[in-house]
Predict the 3D structure of the following.
Amino acid sequence: MKKLKKKALIVLGIFIAIAIGFYFSKNINLNAKYKVGQKIDSLNGVIVYYNGGVGHVRGRVLTDDGYNLGLKYQCVEFVKRYYYQELNHEMPNSYGHAKDFFDLNILDGNKNEQRNLTQFTNPSKSKPKADDLVIYSGTILNKYGHVSIISKVTENEIEIIQQNPGPFGNSREKFGLIYDNGKWKIENDKIMGWLRK
């Protein structure tokens, strides 16, 4: 009985240590190459800032007129700041996690009223375009999902720009783009779809 109790305590201790380590790795900067808040990229003059751990938060960003852009240096804050500054767009619902930008009840090509954008599913009859928002589902390690902006589209590939991909992630990524059975698919199973002004 004592051995079983001892083993249970050891397993519990290991689990707690892993949980604490995971929490801190998401909330601190593990990459000494960058400082939190450092400019690392831009799209059409709208800056991408480095955030360190994906869970790191430095308060909420509001525009001068009170419009909510999101939590500082998070992925949502960048895409909403880009749409606000570059496309003069404010979302009717200015809150929510990244994955909440995509409404599973909306059919391909219909209006997402909460975001005042047209929503396309992955795959879609509509080919992705530059400036579209790309929405990713949540995962076990990131239940909030992710959102990025398409910076470039070719016949068989898209390039995205993103803020807060993790301490060692890149601000730019490329994904394959295939056309099959009359539909365009971005080759990433986490991508639910895209939104367009």
About this structure: The chain has a mean pLDDT of 90.
